[in-house]
Design goal:
It contains nine helices and two strands. By secondary structure, it is mostly helical.
C-alpha cells in the first residue's frame, strides 16, 4: 500500500523514515549468501529473488529443499534478521507455515506434478498477476490457474500480452 494511502486511512500513524543505506547493505549481504548457494540467482528487487538449486545436491551434500531451509535459518540468524526478505507470492502462499521468509520448492523430478499442484489455486498466486491483470481475468471469468492451463498459448498471448 502506498504511504499516501496508508496516511489517508490512518492519519494518526507515526511514519518512521526508511534507512535505504541499511536496506541496501542488508540486501547485498543476503544476495551474497544466495550467490554462495548457486550462480542461478534471478534478482527481482532489493529483497526478492528466484534461486535455481537444481543440480546443487552434490555440491551441498543435501537436497535443495534442505539447502533452502538452512539458508533461511542463516538469514534469520544474521544481521539481516530485522529485514527478512519476503516474496509477495510465497508469503501469501496458502499453505505456508512460516510468517517471515517463505519458500516454495519444486523438485526437478516433480516438474510434471507442478501444473496439477498449481491448478487448484487462484490466478493471483502467479507472480506478476497484479490487481489490473487479475481484474481483466476476472472480467473474462478466469479465476483459477487451471483455467489458464486449459487455454492455448496463442490465445493467452493475443488476449493478455
Amino acid at each position: 500500500m502506498p504511504m499516501f494511502k496508508a496516511l489517508e486511512l490512518c492519519p494518526e500513524a507515526v511514519v518512521v523514515p526508511p534507512n535505504m543505506e541499511k536496506y541496501v547493505g542488508v540486501g547485498r549481504e543476503v544476495r551474497a549468501l544466495m550467490q554462495a548457494l548457486t550462480p542461478q540467482v534471478e534478482p527481482l528487487s532489493i529483497d526478492e529473488a528466484f534461486l535455481d538449486l537444481a543440480g546443487t545436491e552434490k555440491l551441498h551434500g543435501m537436497p535443495p529443499a534442505l539447502v533452502l531451509a538452512r539458508f533461511a535459518q542463516t538469514v534469520e540468524r544474521s544481521s539481516a534478521s530485522p529485514f527478512r526478505p519476503v516474496s509477495p507470492t510465497a508469503s501469501s502462499w496458502p499453505r505456508s507455515p512460516r510468517t517471515s521468509a517463505s519458500r516454495v520448492v519444486f523438485r526437478p523430478s516433480g516438474e510434471a506434478e507442478a501444473p496439477s499442484f498449481l491448478a487448484e489455486h487462484p490466478v493471483t498466486l502467479i507472480w506478476g498477476v497484479g490487481k489490473a491483470l487479475a481484474a481483466t481475468l476476472e472480467r473474462d471469468g478466469i479465476r483459477m490457474i487451471a483455467q489458464l492451463q486449459r487455454m492455448e498459448r496463442g490465445e493467452l498471448m493475443r488476449r493478455y500480452a
